[in-house]
Write the structure tokens for this entry.
Amino acid sequence: MNRSIETIHTAHHQREGGGFIVRRPFPSGQVEAIDPFLLLDEMGPIDYRPGEAVGAPDHPHRGFETVTYVLEGEMEHEDSAGHRGALRGGDVQWMTAGAGIVHSEEPSRALRERGGRVHGFQIWVNLPAALKMTRPRYQEVPAAKIPHAKSADGLAEVRVIAGAALGARAVIDTHTPIVYQDWSLQPGASVVLPLAAELRAMVYVFDGGAKVAGAKVTSGQLAVLGAGDALVLEGAEGPGRLLVMAGAPLREPIARYGPFVMNTRAQLEEAFADYQSGKLGAITRTAQVVS
């Protein structure tokens, strides 16, 4: 059975981190979370002049996963566990915060000094209660290793970050079943994408427009899908680009405040206490990330 659209939500703009603006379809006044997804932020697209670019300086996380997908620009990251690296256009970082980590994501030195274009996404994926305190884990995949595929007529193209589509299967391992895909559709494109019936699914259009389950969805709109085991994606009058996201609902209580997502208020209070006492560590800056 093909899925249909239950609701459509228009993203709002919000200031985050060190002052950068995101386009955020959720959480919002209309929808708090779409289990197991907690947040979807579109960063940019924005063109920074020299000295303008800002990011997200040192901040803690516990109890969930952050997924950063860079379309354009360069970001440097480091954390309290000693990880350091850079993300460039097309790269993906899937970070399982688990028991807790202090993390920093900033524009590269070159981007800060010379300016440039920044565009990308961050999603937050909840962890089940049994994995809230798991050991932190990083999976970083450069653009060249993200599986991609095209439809037989060449009118639909997909980059598969999680899940599978058009014969391509993700290289990233997820704790629970997750689909996360970047689709480009040309006019005349038509794709039937299998989606397991037990997954909660949504589509976010971020450029142009597309027909999702037969309905027109335009840039900045999130379509939350109903039940079914397949999704029909079609091109609109012009090119369109969108994210398809789906996940197995956890159906567990959520205690959430700022950078911590737990199951009870007591666990939330413990997370804040651990951070304030230094148990999550601190970033030691003894080396410079090479831009």
Notes: The helical segments are 109-114, 265-276.
